[in-house]
Amino acid sequence: MGKIRLLFSSPVLRRVNWHLKRVADQMDRRFFTSLMVGLTVFLSVAASAVWLAETERSLADFGASIYWAVTTVLGQGDASYVSGPIGWSVGWLLGLFGVAIVATITGALVGFVIDFLIKEGQGMGAAGYEDHIVVCGWNSTARDLIKELSSDDYRAQVVLLCDEARNPAGDSVYFVKGDPSDEGDLRRAGIEHAVSAIVCPVDGSKEADMASILTILAIESIQPRVRTVVEVNNPEHVPHFRRANVDEVMVTSKLAAHLLARSALYPGLSELVSDIVSGGEGSELYRVQLPDDCVGKPVDDVSAMLRRNHGATLLGVSRNGHLTTNPSVDFVFEPEDNLIVIAESLGVLSPLENATALSD
Fold first, then answer.
1. pTM to 2 decimals?
2. Per residue in 180-202, pLDDT tens?
3. How far apart are CA 135 and CA 175, in angstroms?
4. Mean of all residue pLDDT scores within the chain
5. Which domains does the chain have, with CATH numbers?
6. Can you tell me the mean pLDDT for 138-164?
7. Residue 32, φ and ψ in degrees, nearest 5
8. I want to staple 181 with a disulfide (CB 3.0 to 4.6 A). Which of 43, 215, 219, 351 is the partner?
9. What whole-number distance in Å separates Cα of residue 180 and Cα of residue 200?
């Protein structure tokens, strides 16, 4: 049962199902209803004629005649089932009619496959992922963060939603062409099943920030539980983003200015920060759950245990959505606390369950 559930939850099957629904919504239902009714009537008349002329007219013979008529239309009928002029004539008509039926079915299947491939290649499909990250908008920041998220350390499925002619992020990222503030395009990106969304402005203008706010509002209206992280051009716009209920705000220009200033005063800080927040070799930031045996202990004891048992350094504590950096010596841990640590990899932190990397 688990394997069957896993099969039907496949992103590819979800995409095919989405395209089937799209095609079904576009087709003329009255035409296909009339076609199916006409086919049923034609097969019933043909089977009745053969049943009356070629069999002993029992109920079993009527079922066999219907089966023969259907298989003859599909090109698999038994020619020896009929032996008289009426049966031969009906068989010829079914054979001729079957060519048209098979051609129609084959054409419909081929047309659907071609349409599926074209739409997917143009970014007009649906992602079909769950627990993935949606990147809304395209700029240099989006390019670099997608490269970071595509590394083996994160193992996250990434969907890019932007209004570009073709996929600018490469084949490793599923591309959805559209407007990030449009509800339909967000649903095609699977925003209701995503764990987080990263919103990047298309340029450095005020209008780009306003478009990002509209994107945040659209995401919140569809699925408020999705964690939203946004890059902001103008620090003066941060209050507007806060009112839109964004979870994380990143003013990259302000962050870069602070880092440049600190690096000028204290050489080597820029290299240290770059190593911490980038994937690959070196230590990284992680957010992990507090081990049960650390509840009620002071910060110095927990810090020593993390360093001794996991090779990790405690940087901060997240409690009820509030982050405390470098906790004071009288800080005591509570059951729901999360730890912000720096370590070589999650493998070293395997005793700490449900660990997740801090990509934001």
1. 0.66
2. 999 999 999 999 999 999 999 99
3. 10
4. 82
5. 2-121 (1.10.287.70), 133-256 (3.40.50.720), 283-357 (3.30.70.1450)
6. 83
7. -70, -30
8. 215
9. 10
